[in-house]
Amino acid sequence: MRFVLKVESGKKVSVIPELTGNSKFTKNLKGIVKSISESPVPVFLCGERGTGKRLFSQHVHLASSPDFKNFYEVNCRVFEDEGIKKLFGKIKEAADERATLFINNVNLLSQDMQTLLKETYLDELLAKKVKIITSSETEIEQSAGMLSKFAGVQFNSDLYFRLSVVKLNFLPLRQRQEDILPIAQFYLKKFRRDSGLKFEGFSDSCIKKMQDYLWKANCDELINAIQRAFIVGNEGMISFSDLGLEGLQRQESIQDDTIESFTDENDKSLKAVTDAFKKKYLLKVLRENGWNQTKTAEVLGIQRTYVVKLINDFNIKNKE
Questions:
Q1: Over 255-293, what HEC string results?
Q2: Cα–chain-centroid distance for residue 152?
Q3: By the 8 A CB rule, do 179 and 22 touch?
Q4: What is the mean pLDDT of the chain?
Q5: pTM for the whole thing?
């Protein structure tokens, strides 16, 4: 077990977990951290929540030259425009400070802030050799530059292409099963050290079920499940029931059994099944949100313009 330590501004010590996993994806990430840290161009990370985008950004910062001091993070899901402007201004005005700026959920940046970043801050930050890393849980290409009379928050295509000189796609945990057990063991050791409790490991059946589980919230869900086991489980070997996931696993199995409801007798292609599911799920979320397209887009984690496109593609009509 290893944690990476970094002293920031001569005072604050940040503790960063290592990049853990045996998949080809994770090994590639480890291999490019140094080269990314030495490149002056902006980096764009795309992937579901909990796939390690923030952790990767922190490792890039740690691998940078010693004169890189602070790691700044702004989460556009939480920060208001004024808070974002203050942070950008603080970094811009800092005297002789080289830093890393991680803009999380950049796809949620308001159009005004997109314009301000592109026209006012971006060039100055890059001139100061600030390392700029942005991330999104959804593909921005589907909304970048799209125009529609129903347009909500669109992403400026010029800004997107400037931020994504280097683009990395982060795979969900369910697509890299080789990483599940190493990550679980890493945090087992961490929580054991922090708590003093004598949990030895995971039972064989627990390991098998963990590897078969979908992990919809990715690494975050896995880490939280292990932490739960330390609270409710008995010392010794951790069982799958200690993770609190059994009910969810059964629910997912029931959902898998309903796949036939999305198939067409004459067309069982993947596209047909996928489109049928998209239409049915979109209709469900629209109804739950009173046919409010903005709220529906927020629930689905996509741009409102893309919701409009899907409604038109699937010829969905509000008959309620």
A1: HHHHHHHHCCCCCCCHHHHHHHHHHHHHHHHHHHCCCCH
A2: 22
A3: yes
A4: 83
A5: 0.73
